[in-house]
Amino acid sequence: MNRATRIAALAALVVLLIVMPWIGVPIPPLFSEAMSAPGSLNLLALCFVFGALALSYDIIFGFAGLLSFGHALYFAAGVYVTAIALTHWHCTLLQAMGITIVVALILPLVIGAVCLRVRDIQFAMVTLAFAQAGSILVMQNPFGLTGGEEGLALGPSALPAALVGVANTRNIYWIALAFLVLTCAIGVWSVNSAAGRVWQAIRENERRVAVIGLNPYLYKLGAFVLSSFLASMAGVVYMVVEGSASPDVTTASFTLVLLVMVVLGGVGTLWGAVLGGIVYEYLDFRLVVLANASGLQSLPAFLRVPLSEPLFILGVLFIILVLFVPGGLAGAVRRLNPASLSSSGSH
Amino acid sequence: MSADYLASQLFNGLASGAFYALLALGLSVIFGTLRIINFAHGAMYMLGAFATYYGAQYLHLNFFLALILAPLVVAVLGMLFEVLLLRRLQGLDPVYGLLFTFAATLVVVNLMRLLAGAMGSPYNIPDALSGATNLGFTLYPTYKLFVIVVSIIVCVLVWWFVERSLLGARIRASTENPVLVRALGIDTPRIITLTFGLGVAIAALAGVLAAPTTNVYPSMGDDIIIYTFAIVVIGGLGSITGSIVMGFALGVLQTLGAIWYPPIATTLIFIVMVIVIALRPSGLFGRPESS
Amino acid sequence: MRITRIISAVCAGIMLCAPLSAAPVAAADTGPIHIAVITDMSGVYASISGQGAVEATKMAVEDFGGKVLGRPIIVDTVDHQNSGPTAEAKAREEFDNGAELAVDLTNSATALAVAAVAKDMHKLAIVSGGGSSALTGASCNKYTYHYAYDTYALAHSEGTSVAKAGYKTWYGIVPDYAFGKSMLADFTDAIAPFGATFVHSDTMPLGTTDFSTYMLAAKNAHPQVVALLNAGADTVNSMKAAKEFGLDKQMKIVVGLFFLPQVDTDPALWAGAKVADSWYWNQTPEARKWADRYAARMNGVRPGSIQAADYSSTMQWLKAVKAVGSVDADKIVAYLDGRTFSDFYAQNAQWRARDHSVVHDMYVYDILPQSEVKERDAWYKLVDTIPASQAFRPVAQSNCTKTW
Fold this sequence. Notes:
The complex is a heterotrimer. Chain A is mainly α. Chain A contains 16 helices and two strands. The radius of gyration of chain A is 20 Å and the shape is globular. Helices cover 41% and strands 19% of the residues of chain C. Chain C is built from 15 helices and 16 strands.
């Protein structure tokens, strides 16, 4: 496909998604209700959030080559800061977003500054440790802010009226869609910018970047902050879609989920990550329902029981991806060939 | 606060440090040869405890035999894992070893959950080691003393083996320059597999020692492994001495911290880690990076 | 112009499909009525609830005749995997697909999540498994009843019983999350009238597995009672450490949250501990009769209190449906509110209208050593009965903002 066709197809897809709430077409096995029904729109909105979140992760992991094992922390920061501002401090949504933006910039700046003093595996472990500390903090419910293991639920008056209630699901859906489109734009722009090219150079050979007089540390910090910031913003939208914050989003397994999304779609390709996020979230949501379906219930126990363990499936899926998806991981981390480089950056 | 009381708490610290030291040691041994951070280390620890429990349940295996047999069994499983799966990751970024072993952990832990239930199974302190021993200043649980002693013996043996023995020299050489070592007629892949087995066996041994003090449950390795990672980073990645010394030291520090202010107990190790990384990124006992 | 062509094709597609959206989803009021047992089928709570909860609910349906209002009743098993969001998603799906009642809801996070869905969708949830007092406090709602126990009732039953026996100095082992903190507050409250106090309590972070430090500290403080106000694996590990340091020989050990099926895993460990619960299968002939029928279906395992509560609550709901002649939650709530009853599970019980707490007598038990146990699962000895009015939070202190 040439560039014009691709842009046209993309535009058509976006238009189709924008008008989705008026389309009553049912897609029976894929969605339990018509596409315009609140249930379907809600699921799609969640898929969009996770598509954007996976993209944010791909920026740091796929493009800058930094395995942050604590990406959940920044998503969770977005979710919780918004939720706390809305429920405890009685902010309006805009005020809450303002507070979250400030936190979402400072938090990764400080943590990144420390973590980026080490690289490779130490970096992964140190980011994991910070995320773990964040998870513990949320569970401890400091000053009664986070609600501990019960999480936080938004009251009916916490959000603007246009975002509350089943009838307004379409507004939430549009917000999620707009956010995804905006994130994609930022993602494409950033990886194709001068800084984006330096990130990829660092991924290939950090020393070479240093030799030509650039400071890899600052570029890595930039990638870290941008990626984490987008994750936090995804957290804000998630909060609006879900209406509640649960400590599940702070855990290391949640970061692994993000990794699976990115690996599923293809490391180092933005559209792949978005697709991975959308497909994963969709499957995650629908499989929960399908696990109860009569077909699965009639399977023998040794098959049915492991299939109903989401973490088991996640682990197996990841092992298969790492071992068998041809070239996926190896090629992605080491280098991208010119063909895939152009496909990753051109839309 | 009396001196007796503090001394007893010091022993508590050494006892929890004994587990950290063993786990960190195993992690370092594996990292030293494979350049892989074995996230599945916690799962190996858990499997060691379960091997002990099932051994007692079905084979009436006593604790002292389990201390030898369980690590062997788990080591064999570990070596199979290395030969069949981990080996395929050679040549990839080491980060994939971490990811892969993390995924393997999820699979193993959740399989054990299905097999054994999440609540866990009880395993009691063997009669010969129950009760308390008079330390002169206080009575202290015999079993905890046993854990400290076993851990110190194993740590010293492994340290000597890797750092001082001929075989250890070969292991180190296999990592530094596999081509040259192979040219000398040494079977590098086998050495790597056996070393992985050794690391796993040490983790499983820690699991056997843990079985009587906590319930044996599938997620028992999940928390401790994160602390162990932090300890390895503090000690210096790949440094055997660093792992052992910091394992015991941080066990004691954590316990003293817990007396002073309980809520800080689990975060203290991370705080130390951040300080160490800020001041000396290669860790307290690690060699500074050449770059 | 390719772009315009594609867009117009999309628009044509929309036109084609639009009429389909008008198809309404008819509410079936002649089909089967579903009851969803939403619980933990394979995790930490599977033994205290799990399959047993499903079986108990099915027994209630069978005993009732399998039908109500001429419609068959189907019991659905829903595994929430101890995740709030999963519970929420599955509850929505269940209520959408014909469920009129959700029961069990073991683990507070899932109970609160489903309670919110019930409120949203105007369907009934009866919680027996989750223990958070928030269900009838800050998070109370019209469509959720809290049936078996809450942290307030446990603390007040056990605290009252032990403190009035003359134990004045207490030492708390408290996990650093909502459950632990509310247990400590409730226990402190409960023992105060008898002149008893917590001389000290250690709040330990989540993920603590080595309790030696705290047990040694507790021993060093020489209290009369050590209260383990934690749950699950933490309780087991802290009890092990307590025994290792010989605390059980010098003081009373009180366990805040405990269920009968837990004894089985390690009888020697629990012997001598004191616990509170809402029911024990061998406490009355009626209870025993039901428990034996249950055991016959569950390979001889006797039921715990949550499973009995699931049977009892399902039966109460079915009777209400029959009396009202409708499954409509609003009508059922109107019928149940304020109603009193007693059955094999709940003595002197009332569906309290003020906060939707279902109050009944609570009990305090000693766990017997193996040598005194004559038959399977007969671990408890009843030592005290706390009347409903003293066990549960008084209406006057309720912090439920009643909005219905």
